[in-house]
Amino acid sequence: MKSIKVLAVVLLVGVMSAFTVKDSGGYKLGDAVEDFSLKNVNGKKVSMKDYKEAKGFIVIFTCNHCPYAVAYEDRIIALDKKYSKLGYPVIAINPNNPEKQKEDSYDLMKVRAKEKGFTFPYLFDEGQKIYPKFGATKTPHVYVIQKTGKSNVIQYIGAIDDNYEDEKAVKQTYVQDAVDALLKGSDVPIRQTKAIGCSIKA
Amino acid sequence: MILMKKILMLSGLLSIFLLITGASIYTDSEPKPLKIYQKDGVVVNSYDYNSLEYFLKKDNDTTYVVNFWATWCVPCVEELPSFEKLNKEYKDKKVKVILVSLDMSKQIESRLIPFIQKKKLRSKVVLLNDPDANAWIEKVDKSWSGAIPATIIYKKQNRKFYERSFTYEELEKEVNQLIK
């Protein structure tokens, strides 16, 4: 009888591992996020815990060089303008190693932030240590995070919307829909999407 | 008895219908492009994902190497010479390279076509112009995160997907497993 139980457990574990989807690791929906402390373009370190009043965050891995990231810059600024006052500020993080992609150096980040008038912190993932924790694979790659008591929980992973090329042709505003739902206290309608992007260069 | 006849007739009609539609599925003609870009003798057809799928599911004895890339993607551009070399060296071994560009549709004449000319690309280049990427990324492969470069190598039903860069030797190794 005991051996049957053992066999059943072994089978169950086997079946479960067979169906586990292969992925790049990192946080999944519902996971609590570890805080980070990264250098902003103004030289100061930024952490999530600095935002005492925030209800959550829109963390966006983005960079200077990627055309998809550039295509979304104005939409990222608009997101911050709309949602930071509602409690969901944007925190942008450049995950690329400037030795591999020279346009993404800390100095050029400062230049880009000034040119575009970024209203949000643009942080440098020095040593490329934070993006693997998130499992970000490309830019732009968005994580909507909700503060729940003491932890920060991932509620959405993916694209900003469904049309990188033409903002006017957008039909689904994934990030806005996610944050709107969280602000209303309802479930996020679409919790995960995929988008084309520039692979992160570590 | 009458019922029996009816069933027979229906199944007959059904098989004729299947033959006709089946036949049309297997005719090997390229799908109609969304747009044909033409400049300085270079022609690039653009497709939405549904039409592009034709190039990802060909059913013949050729091995297809389909690479997703863009002119602005540094690792993609770095590995292009390997794909070009493969297309040339393996021509007689029924291997065909298809380069699926994800360049922005506004930059085809100004960027993609000049690039094809400058690098003298010989492999077939098509443009995938379908900005709702969330709708098709997983149709290419469930495991794809959406980062490029990405490559599919397939022959008939035998296919492999790679979200990574390749050297020529690495490409050769993967292709040699399929062409036998």
What does this structure look like?
The complex is a heterodimer of chains A (202) and B (180). By secondary structure, chain A is an alpha+beta fold. Helix content of chain A is 30%, strand content 20%. Chain A has helices at 2-19, 67-83, 106-116, 131-134, 174-184, and strands at 38-40, 45-46, 56-61, 90-94, 122-124, 138-139, 141-148, 151-158, 197-199. In chain A, strands 2-1-5-4-3-7-8 form a 7-stranded mixed beta sheet, with helices on one face. Chain B is built from 6 helices and 8 strands. Chain B has 180 residues and is of the alpha/beta class. The model of chain B is unreliable at 20-26 (pLDDT under 50). The chains are: A alpha+beta (202), B alpha/beta (180). The A-B interface holds A 21-24, 65-67, 71, 100-101, 137-138, 158-159, 162-166, 169, 171, 174, 193-201 and B 70, 72-75, 102, 104-106, 131-135, 137-138, 142-149, 163.
